[in-house]
């Protein structure tokens, strides 16, 4: 794992401190804040339960069709009629929107079947495939192909495409470009999208049955990560395995995470795969982290204190074992995201209770940033608004974190409740976006190839005010996540092999030459954000497609 800390982060902090000293020798606390929150929109009309960043810079968001009437109307007088809907059979409001990051505007989309607690992944061509949900949406597959903001692209739905009900399932893109859909409520099986023929089929996965805590479940939305050998890491409740989905067999089972606290819905911890270092020809180090959750039985016992521990498991070790760490704040329903630096942000959630209607208290409004190399948690000083059950977060190409949602109620509820339904959209700017880092921040000018090939050379031209040394520069690709219910599905970072950096004296710009990822198992085909990170400070991303 590459260390993202360096002396220039320290130098930036010292500079900010020196700026903040007042004449009487006291520090101005307002100038010491290196991170910040920004309210983007007070309402997007829906509560952002699910989020996916698309390669055209748009973000698609949706909640569920049976929340009742939302605060945004469908365009052109369109109304949706669904005789099976449990809230509004005739509904002229939207339950999905397309958000334009650049213009900070949104437009409504028309989703017909119920997307409540569903899952998703993006195909190699950039089309979002969204699966499952509730009621008439439980076997649905939906597709959304990116288009311009002013165009009229919308959801295309296939209501009975899936072989089984997929409510609280997890999706993962595979090396061959297919998507595996795993689990769901009382679904101890998995299936592939697209299916081979007109008949949809599923395959048993008894591990999911074994990890169910009866009525408390604690194995929904299993954490799934694609490994460099092509197998899947699957974590459910307290147990984890390496699973060969092609042969339908468990390759390896790991020790249970210590402490006995469940980590999956409704106990709802979160998980990430640490960045994969593809810079040398040796075996790639693979490490997983799982954080937060709720004690066993917490769903039935009321507002018990959330779990404060994290576990790190290095799968590439000869005999992997969990290394436990303690977060500075207990957290359930937190969202874990990889930042371009390789650090991890944990945002949203509560300090007591579980996921579910009215099941949590004590919102955790401060994000935590974790530095993996130093095993260091930092509680960030700037608080946000409460983001409880049904909130979400994703990484944006400019390095900010987009945060929205929160609705712990059966329907939209804005009054006379402790945590009203939240329709707002916020952006969090980590410390690396503070203006004092601008002199050492790369700016991508051009990528020689918009389409990258495995193990093939490509170039990125960039400008920078103060280039320090090639040893402090790295090239990273990040797969944008489908985030819902405290898990960023398909989130992935690969550190690519940097070959050289040259300077153009005429334009005073630089060119970095690097190699595309080694294999489709390390980086499945599809669209990625490419970042340059220099002395711990990331550029904004450009988009590339890996074929």
From TrEMBL:
Q: Which InterPro entries match?
A: Gal_Oxase/kelch_b-propeller, Gal_Oxidase_central_sf, Glyoxal_oxidase_N, GO-like_E_set, Ig-like_fold, Ig_E-set
Start and end residues of each Galactose oxidase-like Early set domain: 441-546
Q: Where is the Glyoxal oxidase N-terminal domain?
A: 49-432
Note whether Signal occurs among the keywords. Answer: yes
- Could you list this entry's UniProt keywords, alphabetically sorted: Signal
Indicate the secretion signal residues. 1-27
Q: Which PANTHER family match?
A: GLYOXAL OXIDASE-RELATED PROTEIN, SECRETED PROTEIN-RELATED
User: Would you tell me the protein name for this molecule?
Assistant: Glyoxal oxidase-related protein
State the organism of origin: Arabidopsis thaliana (Mouse-ear cress)
């Amino acid at each position: 794992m590459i260390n993202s800390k360096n002396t220039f982060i320290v130098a930036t902090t010292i500079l900010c401190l020196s700026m903040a000293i007042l004449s009487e020798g006291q520090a101005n606390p307002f100038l010491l804040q290196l991170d910040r929150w920004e309210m983007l929109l007070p309402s997007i009309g829906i509560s952002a339960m699910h989020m996916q960043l698309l390669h055209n810079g748009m973000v698609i968001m949706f909640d569920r069709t049976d929340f009742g009437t939302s605060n945004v109307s469908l365009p052109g007088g369109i109304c949706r009629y669904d005789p099976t809907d449990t809230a509004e059979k005739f509904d002229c409001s939207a339950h999905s929107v397309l958000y334009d990051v650049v213009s900070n505007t949104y437009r409504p989309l028309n989703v017909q079947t119920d997307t409540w607690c569903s899952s998703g992944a993006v195909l190699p061509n950039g089309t979002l495939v969204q699966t499952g949900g509730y009621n008439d949406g439980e076997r649905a597959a939906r597709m959304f192909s990116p288009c311009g903001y002013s165009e009229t692209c919308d959801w295309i739905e296939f209501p009975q495409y899936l072989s089984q009900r997929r409510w609280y399932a997890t999706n993962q893109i595979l090396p061959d470009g297919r998507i595996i859909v795993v689990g769901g409520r009382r679904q101890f099986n998995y299936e592939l999208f697209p299916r081979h023929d007109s008949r949809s089929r599923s395959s048993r996965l008894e591990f999911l049955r074994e990890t169910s805590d009866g009525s408390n479940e604690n194995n929904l939305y299993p954490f799934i990560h694609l490994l460099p050998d092509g197998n899947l890491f699957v974590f459910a409740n307290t147990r984890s395995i390496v699973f060969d989905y092609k042969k339908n067999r468990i390759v390896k089972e790991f020790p249970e995470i210590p402490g006995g606290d469940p980590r999956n819905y409704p106990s709802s911890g979160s998980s990430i795969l640490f960045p994969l270092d593809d810079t040398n020809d040796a075996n790639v180090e693979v490490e997983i982290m799982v954080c937060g959750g709720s004690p066993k039985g917490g769903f039935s016992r009321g507002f018990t204190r959330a779990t404060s521990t994290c576990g790190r498991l290095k799968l590439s070790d000869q005999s992997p074992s969990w290394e436990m760490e303690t977060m500075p704040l207990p957290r359930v329903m937190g969202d874990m995201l990889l930042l371009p630096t390789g650090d991890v942000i944990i945002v949203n959630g509560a300090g007591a209770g579980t996921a579910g209607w009215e099941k949590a208290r004590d919102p955790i409004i401060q994000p935590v940033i974790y530095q993996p190399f130093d095993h260091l948690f930092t509680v960030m000083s700037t608080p946000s608004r409460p983001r409880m059950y049904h909130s979400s977060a994703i990484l944006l190409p400019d390095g900010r974190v987009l945060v929205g949602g929160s609705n712990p109620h059966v329907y939209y509820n804005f009054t006379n409740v402790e945590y009203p339904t939240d329709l707002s959209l916020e952006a969090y700017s980590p410390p690396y976006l503070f203006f004092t880092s601008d002199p050492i921040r790369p700016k991508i000018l051009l990528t020689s190839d918009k389409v990258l090939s495995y193990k093939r050379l490509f170039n990125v031209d960039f400008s920078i005010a103060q280039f320090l040394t090639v040893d402090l520069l790295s090239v990273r690709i990040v797969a944008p996540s489908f985030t819902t219910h405290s898990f960023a599905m398909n989130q992935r970072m690969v550190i690519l092999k940097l070959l050289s950096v040259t300077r153009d004296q005429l334009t005073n710009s630089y060119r970095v030459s690097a190699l595309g990822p080694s294999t489709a198992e390390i980086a499945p085909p599809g669209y990625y954000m490419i970042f340059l990170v220099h002395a711990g400070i990331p550029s904004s991303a450009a988009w590339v497609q890996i074929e």
